[in-house]
Design a protein that fits this description.
The protein is an alpha+beta fold. It has five helices and 17 strands.
């Protein structure tokens, strides 16, 4: 491992392989939760399913104890944007549930998030989820060796703005990831192409658009964690950890490494 700039880790191939192992734990945990989360569960029960699966996979939850966070997952419901603390809240038919998950394998981190709708939701909420997930993949697809972080930011923002009057959350960003869950550089969801840190082989990034049906303005609740939209409208959050190799893009937290989505977009797969 080397450092391109202060705090910016450049991983060796072996270290990226370790990150891939952590990423697979995260990806498979999120797949499991997407199948298992149903109306009537508490957010604490969702969290317990995740912790059991992560530990049974030989990994450690990244979030548990991080800066005092008390759970394995961030579970954010409806107008909660990110960092919702699991507890006795019961999720119900028609709720939108964002699940953010991290795991550590051999000291290396994976971090990803999905948002799922429970049962029937409105067409505008369905479209919000589609737009947010597609914005994530547009951001991933904009990453190139020799390109810049701003290329990712611009791709996310341009796509979302072009799809409708959505709010793109600016106060929270993606980030570098590796031997710590959050590292430089920040990966904003708004920005200009050609700006920011240059993307080099061995850099790993967590890209995570957060999009709202209304204004992007938000507040943090008294628990000092849960972020909610100020106007009370629904938010969505999708995230993957990824890297760029000489061969192409490698989505470390996608179970297939990103092969299917990248192929559909005509983008090169760079994993192994």
């Amino acid at each position: 491992m080397s450092f391109l700039h202060p705090g910016v880790e450049i991983k060796s191939p072996a270290q990226l392989d370790a990150m891939r192992r952590a990423g697979l734990v995260v990806g498979r945990t999120l797949e499991l939760l997407t199948e298992r989360v149903v109306p009537g569960m508490t957010t604490a029960q969702i969290d317990a399913v995740a912790e059991e699966h992560i530990r049974d996979s030989g990994a450690t939850p990244s979030f548990l104890g991080y800066q005092g966070f008390p759970a394995t997952l961030c579970v954010s419901v409806n107008d909660e944007v990110v960092h919702g603390i699991p507890g006795d809240r019961v999720v119900r038919e028609g709720d939108v549930v964002s699940i953010d998950c991290g795991a550590i394998v051999d000291g290396w981190h994976g971090d990803a998030a999905v948002t799922v709708a429970l049962g029937e939701v409105s067409d505008e909420v369905t479209e919000l989820l589609r737009v947010t997930e597609e914005a994530l993949w547009r951001g991933i697809g904009a990453a190139r060796l020799g390109g810049r972080i701003g290329d990712i930011s611009a791709a996310v923002e341009t796509y979302v703005r072009g799809e409708g009057p959505y709010g793109v959350v600016e106060d929270f960003t993606g980030h570098g990831i590796g031997s710590a869950m959050h590292q430089p550089p920040d990966v904003p969801n708004v920005g200009r192409a050609g700006r920011g840190l240059r993307i080099t082989e061995g850099l790993a990034l967590a890209i995570e658009p957060m999009v709202t049906l209304g204004d992007q303005a938000n507040d943090t609740l008294d628990d000092d964690w849960t972020v909610v939209t100020r106007d009370g409208r629904t938010a969505a959050h999708f995230e993957h950890s990824m890297t760029v190799t000489a061969e192409g893009l490698w989505v470390l937290t996608a179970v297939d490494g990103g092969r299917a989505r990248l192929a559909a977009a005509g983008l090169p797969f760079g994993g192994r």
